[in-house]
Batch of 4 targets.
Target 1
Amino acid sequence: MIEALSKSIFHLSTASTSYIIRILETGHAEHVYYGRKLRDAAAAVSGLSEKRYARAGMGTYTDRNFTTLVLDDAKLEFSAEGRGDYRTPLIAVSLGRDGERTLDLKYAGNRIEKGCVKTNGLPMPQAADPYNEAETLSLIFIDSLRHIELRLFYTVFPSTDTIIRRSEVANLSDERLVIRALSSAQLDFRETGMKAITLTGAWGREFEKRTTELKSGTFISESRRLGSSAEANPAFMLLRKDGSCYALNLIYSGPHRMSASVTEHGMTHVVWGINPDMFSWVLESNETFSSPEAVMTFSENGKEAAGDRMKMFISTSILRSSWKDRMKPLMLDTWETLRFNARENRLEELAKGALEMGCEGIIINDGWFGTRNNDRTSLGDWHVNTQKLPSGLTELADSIHRKGLLFGLWFEPEAISVKSTLYKAHPEWIIGRDGETNAEGRHEELLDITRYDVQDWIITTITRLAELVRLDYLRWDMNRHYSDLYTLSGIRDYGMYAHEYASALYRILSEIGSRFPDLYIETSAGGGARFDLGMLSVSASISPSCLSDPIERARMIENASLFYPQSVIGTVVSPSPNSATRRIVDRETRFNIAAFGILSYSVDPSSFSRSEMKAYKEQIEFYKTFRLMLETGRFRTVEDGNRVIWTVSNEDRSTILALYLQKAIKPNTTAERLVIPDANESYDYRVFSRSHMIPEREIYAYPEESECYDIPGDALKWEGISMVEQLSGIGHHEGMRMLGDYSSRLYIIRRIDK
């Protein structure tokens, strides 16, 4: 709900939060408050607004009639250059031949309207009922001397306690305007000692959680790549000293930056949006440019509660695939088994095994096209390799469909191999001057998808194949970032390129999605290098990493789940030892971890013994029984150390699943407790372990365990179960738990009626 409390005061309220903006006498927008919902916002404004009886020392006042207002020492809705605000600007420009950088933007009006105000081609959230749920406030600021207009948009989603922000610039002058920076949102706090939680990492080490205390100076989390990157996910949190938390994000898949500065006046100044080092935008007279949209939510109850609100918003307003409210398909991926050797007889064997396991489809990964026998050739040649598939792709797809399975294909549509027929036909389509002298990544170049002919070629190529094979599942991958920036696409300024690239990517995927509304689109970028809300606007889920090691994946799932719902996080059960880390992890633990997301397998069922097939079938039967809760339930990290404990629960907490993962055996341990904070205090529960099937050759060493506990909910929540002891160096006793290194149990906790 948006209220104009007066001509100069605006109150944006959700179910649980309030956001107040006040237009000052000088025409600047003061950020008054963002936090827990106020009982009487109108009455609170006077007390919350900052008083100005004296000017900060050495401060530059922008208005000679108000000499105590120093913009550098004010909580503002946006900062700009040239009038005494020396903090990181939300907007920075260069105007005309002289390149003037000063901006003196003053309030010129507002508009309140129902629904979301459309932007120029970028993804935007959608309310469940856009006309009754969402409202948008736009504030207009004009520099009357330079004829530049800034519009700030605030869209309120009351039921998910979320506010969406973006910025828009209009060039009303007769001169060329270059936007040097335009962030999506700014938050100013009159406090220090806040902490930033960010997700950092690299390929194979995605989603490393970092907590940084914000001290004097500037902390930056950014991507300088073509995508949002594994190095710095766009999501972040701000923790206050009182334990309250802001969960923040960006609906964007390009280079981004979050800048958090603690100023000399004891303020924390946070700005986030497009990375200004990777961006500039040329506006001719009467042209406009709009930033991506930033997402903001708040909870006084800490980071998990703030994260829950962010996840609810993603589930209801970002996801828009036809799979949004459907259980995700459980697929068998051929990569770990076949690599590039995707031959017809082996694919038929895997499809038969997938069906017996209980999988719902099969993804033919790399190697099915062109002359692709390794990663040095054929990207761009998206036609069947008849040496490997002599009956053709259509016959293979028909055979898989006849088994009742979904048919999926892996593509890397943004990439091209120099050794390909496509490169011979269109060498001008790559980014860079030529494929012989460019720097390479993974033996491949990138297509210049900012060109409309390249966009149309990708759409047409995938459309033709999708129709030919009745494609059910599309895995869209991208395995390198750009270099050698040079293009023949006619872009006016190379600072525009990364943003144009992201916009082109959205256009391609949106068009494919609209042509095939039931097609399941999963995106990946060398794993988690584009795990962001922009991609979730045009796909059903994202792979968080190429690395399938279950222990590393456990960390990724846990940290990604702070911001993103389980229903968008792809997981996988792969062979052991792991192909990348050589780590050995037992079969049941690999499943227990992967169950907390969208489960898939990359194993070879044609090689299973009867007992192995039985074990995998039981895993899948269990997952299907609890799939709704595992994808959409409330996820919690209870403990993270040598013991990793997760829970996921249904809405009324009558059923809870708990993962107990032990990273290393500790000798001479005795009693342990398992506490379940999400237990309902008024219930009585029975807690028992999912059957942990032991390989036949090891049964003699692992006698049957016996774990079943009955306990009242309040005892389970506050004190926990005293668990059966583990074997830890003092000999085996009947019924003991037998956990080794990287071993786990999955507990089912159900309400019982006495």
Note: The two ends are 46 Å apart (CA to CA).
Target 2
Amino acid sequence: MIKKNSLFSVIFLLLITKILGFWKLRIFAQLFGASHELDIFWAAFTIPDIIFMVLIGGSINAAIIPILTDELYDKGKSSFNLLFKHLTSAFFGLSVLFISLAFIFAPQLTSWIVSDASASMIFNMTSRITESDYTLFLNLFRIGLLSPLFLSVSGFVTAFLQVRKQFFVTSLAPLFYNLAMIVGTYILVVYFDFGVTAIAISAVLGSILHLLVQIPSLSKFYKEKNGELLNFKAIILDSNVIKAFKLAYPRMLGVLGEQFNTVVNTFISFTLSAGTLSAYRFAFSLHMFPINIIGSAIAQVALPDLAKYSCKNEEDNFRKMLNDSIQFSLYLIFPIVAIMLVLRLPIVRLIYGTGAFDWQDTLLTAWSLALLSLSVVGQTVVQILLRAFYALKDTWRPLLAIMVGIVVNLLGAFLLTNFFSHYYDWKPILDQVFVQIAQANGDGVLSVLKSFLKDIFKWSTTRGESDLAVGGLALSLSLAYFFQMIVSGYMLNKKKKVLSWEETIYPSLLKLLNTLIMIVGMYLVFRLFDFQLDTSRTVYVLILTIVTSIYGGVSYLIGSKIFSPKEFAKAESLIKGILIRLKLKEK
């Protein structure tokens, strides 16, 4: 069973971290704008980020936490601490090797990026890096390589503490990382004129702070036995270290596959106009908000318990924990998706609608957000299903599911961007069909549909002129995560029967029904107030958004008493707890 206090404290800290992340980007925009110099920074940090994600980031959940959990509950704290030391040393050594190679060959890599036009697309650049940028790129790249060095150690400390259920402090670490990025960048640019190098230095300082903030908690649980020195032979021959690499290897391949997916999507996105590409990026950042907060928090809190139940062969507890995590995540995610769908335009206007961000940018970003919001459910559930696989020490099946998602996304990105680029060719045809059906006049409907289906291939394989082509990137991602969720669930059930109609599918459908009722009601309220208010003014857009959201939230909460009584009881308990605390403060 998910502990409410741990979960909501993690959600709260992740929310603050995400807000700081937006503030960080705002500081970057304020200091550098959409400049070529800032482009160079993002490109220079791409490889250090990949090194960390492939070697460490993917390994933490896939291998380290499950193996450490087994050791803690099988052999006790002393053996657990020794294994932590061995694993940290082994993976840190691997990180040092790759970072050293990247540092040594940085000049050659920089020369390739400067001379090859395709490198600009691979590194998601909006403008070419030239010979004059060589020194800056090289310096930023080498500074950036220090960041994964500290984060690799910090990542293992995070794994250690999460196994010991110290979720609060591990959630503080990324919060302090963002704070260091904000404060460090501002001070070094404004007072010391460091330019974009200030961001690189701040990232390194942030990674150090990410580690240091966890050290006091680590020292409470980790006790060195007589100050033992590292025994490299013991580390290399440790069967659990070998097992960790075997488990981590498929996840590393999965991360590389996801990076390849990103590169191909970037190539496709460069065939779109600059404005549509920016709209997609803005929408993508918005849709990740609930995933990073709710999905990540629930998956993070669930993994150590799933690993414990797997270790102890407590199948009933494992199944209950997994289904409780899925159902509670869906309970929290569904209303957010509903709000994104119905209020996509006012949300985009309130967050981005300033300065040069005009009405056309708003429409394109809202269009992308609507289609991306469909992926929120898939991405959230996939995070939890992946943790179930990792707890069962299975990293190959998730890799297959990830590959399916990548293939669907790549095919979809190509076909759907083409299809939506012909939006104004096929939209009138569909409108005609709907009008005929609404008027109960079936004459010609079949012939029109046949013509529509016949032209789909042409629309999907040729590029039209509509900027709505950007919707293809958004919808392909949503489809990819939907298929990855289905394939992951199917393969997980083949390995261990944990998902069922009664515990998984039926309650999910009830939550979906409650959400659809919420969407219909919200839409009616939205349209009613939209006609009454002057939405050209920001204050009225804000009122419209708040009123419609409140109605939707109340509607969903009341409906959940019927459709999701278990989750409703948790929400009711939480609300009562908050009200009691507020009353005590007033006294």
Note: The longest helix spans residues 274-311.
Target 3
Amino acid sequence: MSDKKIFRFNQVQNVESLDPAFAKNQNIMWHVHITYNRLIEYNENMEVQPSLAKSWTISDDRLTYTFHLRNDVFFQDNEVFANGRGRKMKASDVVYSFSRIIDEKTASPGAWIFNDRIDTLQPFVAIDDTTFQLKLIRPFNPMLGILSMQYCSVVPHEAVEKWGKDFRSHPCGTGAFRMQDWEEGVVITYRKNPHYWEHDSAGHQLPYIDGIKVTQVDSKATEFLLFMQGDIDFMNGIDASFKDQVLSKKGVLKDEYLQKIRLQKHAYLNVEYLGFLMDESKNPQKILLNKKIRKAINYGFDRKKLVTYLRNNIGIAANAGIIPISLQGYDSNAVQGFSYQPELAKKLIEEVKHETGSIPSITLLSNDNYADRCNFIASQLSNLGLEIKIEIMQPALLREQMSNSNAAFFWATWIADYPDADSYLTMFYGKNTAPPNYTRFKSAVYDQLYEQSLIEANDSVKINLFQQMDRIIVEEAPCVPLFYDEVMHFLNKRVSNWKTNSLNLLEIKEVKIN
């Protein structure tokens, strides 16, 4: 394929499956996004767009979603079809794909997306070949966002039935690229789908390029060297040991790299935060149940300095609540978060000392990836009279501790499952366990607002509800929002027409290689 235009990138983490029903992390999501389509998509401005569904309507009671499907979409050519030629995609395929997600035999980690939301008798209905209906038991505003998730990709029953569990390595979708070969742990290659249905605004068929090659070198440092040698075209983020070599403290490429590579940054629906366990019966560090201490920690360190010096200005200091930039509801005027106010933090600490006699040391749990940030925060707080000890543990163990209410004070990161403020506000809904409610925060007022936001039809009223909840999060301080993240994409100069969105999905079907 040397004369072909092949887009090349590397993934450090192992890809466990290419089956949409198991698209539980970004590694898998990227591959599913390459091979499959969903009813709807979100563009780079996070606006909902037609995909397999060319249009849709929502009933007045907001319980029935009717999708009108395209009539010109075919599954990729595959041996499971007659004569090996892909057949037309129909509404019954959507019914099959969604039913498969909730089927206990599938054991999909995405089954939760429909839990307690869809009609119990006939949630998915094919009215005819081009009309699909989804029925809910109660209105649920984030439903379109849910349907854009990779779990909701449309698959053909023939391929699933033929391969069974091995469907994980024999993907077949309606997407712009079809898998050619997968040498597990080494490389995955794709060829363009010659019968792909989508065209650009000028009427040219997508994709523009001939294929994709994804290597699986498990070192971020080696990946950087491959990129600089021109062996791969794209890099998502950069190994920490090369960050200061390539980027200035302002987060732009240093002069010596400007001619060699391109850097694109985009808001990313990922928020890093410190969480406090709010369950009085479980938290052994009782001092953290004192709101003044939680607020002192929030006021007591410089988020802007953290982002500038430890992240080379990648991301934006969290100046509002938990809802990040680029989602409806974010407004730093309507929700005034915590700024660096050391004197106020010191005053709150002194008040607590006066009330309790002394403040014991506080232990913050983290994994090694975030140790530098934790040490920075601990150092600034020590200047104000708070002793913070950092305990480093393996990521899997930390998640287990957080899930079992054994983490009193912890570093966490939350990537949105779908582009809706609900994906963050659900983290503090009192009826949720962990995940997502790792803090075990409970507030009757918050819960009432949250439940109302799920069914509110008026957009401006719904946004107001989001902001009321976010203000409660700031006031009660069950967490310390640190920064709203940005994706950082490094590109070979031969790549153009690069697009992404706040979910950090790669739109390779529109990539051009010069």
Note: The chain has a mean pLDDT of 95.
Target 4
Amino acid sequence: MHDRPSPSLVNCPAPELSRSPAAARIGRLAAASGLSLTHFEYRQHLRLPDHWAPADRPDLFGEAVWQGGRLVEPKYGPFRHDGVLGSFHPGHRAKWTAHELCHALVGHAWRPDASPLFLALGCRVAELLPVTLYYFLDEAGLRRCPAHASGGPLYGAFCPTCERAALCGPIEIDGRWYDRGRAFVEAELAAVARSRRTGRPSSHRWTTIDLQSDALAYVGAHRLRLMSPEYRRFAELFPAPGRDHATLDSIEARVLELLDDLCGGREAQPLKGDHWQWVAHDIGWRLLQVGSQCEPELGAALDGLVDALAAETTAQGIVAAVEGYRALHDDWIMPEPEAVFALGLPLPDDVDLGRAIDQPAAGLAEGLPGTVELLGEAFVPVVEAFVTAESPTRGPIARRFARFLAAEAPGPVADLALYEAAIAHPEPPDPAAEAFGALAPALDDRVRRAPGVELLAPAVDVRDLTARLKDDPDAVPEDLDDLPPKPHRLAVRRTAGGDIIVAELSPAAAAALDRLADGPLPAAALALSADERLSLQTLGLTIPAGWSERG
């Protein structure tokens, strides 16, 4: 059974909101505002109506699709500045939790007579503080790994060690990041002011960041939607006090209010709303989007559901909206309730909807084909149990599902899932070791386990099982308990060129690699023969603790 959700911060991992003082303040404001995030992989992203799509601009739109076991998010598709519920995407960094909640706290600028210029400038200001938080304010007091300490944001680079270090809590604040953040905000607002005076967007670039370019692309993608009768109706029925801004001055003032708070100044005001109110807003918009594509009689019936929901933005109002939609679905050809109400978070206890199942199942089928084959008819029920039980976790869905199986149902299926996940999503290799080669001269006699090496302990021969499933599925016994036992250890690693190395380890080699998990050791302390030490080194499973300048 799934517990009733807390009234706020659903899908917001608590450690990610204590990584820096700024992130912690965002978390407190978000909790006081009743905010939550939706789970990107468990949210059914409704296809945008064709009449809202910009002509001849397919680059601005697209649907979320699974690629390499990851659900890829089109930049200007699912994200909406006007959406109160942000997104938890397992493939993103931990910085995104505070960033998404910051978007909700800032809000967006819109009015019925908005021009494209107004929408673009409002979008630019709405993006300003979340970006400032991501690149500046969150770095003040952020704990990073020794290699990147005090170096600031990594931009396109990803460091798993930094991600783990940040979850240990903040260090002493370096106020320079607050100063740099304020300077960035001031420069952006000055560019917005020039744009308002001249009537033309004025650029301000900082390294790779260009908020003007992003705002123009966003408006190009969403202008028709924001100017539609359905959106005007949504804005009238579902106001969000404190985050719906009818003037650019108002949203700029909100940005400065929150900026002062995040830099340690006067506390900002939370939004006036609660969890179910924001969920009702999300459902209201989804119903209006469905209604925009319906014939008049059905559209009028959906309007009635929307009116009733707007009048009661509570758990009870949500239950009534679901029941009303299901009744209409019995009589009309329209999107399935399981899709429309798959918001990516749990709905009230009386509603057995809220999370998509087919979407994560498709991703798992791509990443864990053998596991899916073994589960057979049990696959979809097991996926549903996984989706319902999982707390928001970063990482590929194949790895998360494999860990779920290992915890809930250890055995051959879980062993195969862990193996397939390791093959599909290996950790990155050590760039220095790959560049220097396996036998580069060492600084001393100490060795360490190479970064990116993963150790598995299957109880059956998972490599043989994989081959059977691929070449002759009938050779796999119906009762998996009939598989011959073979407890053993495997090491998996990826090379810089993308090749996957899988090595079966002797008990002594496995024990040595286990010991090296805690840090470098003298080679002699591993109790291995010279040949076995050389084998581990040649396979790239161990590397020197440091390299020598001399050959």
Note: Residues 357 and 381 are 9 Å apart (CA to CA).
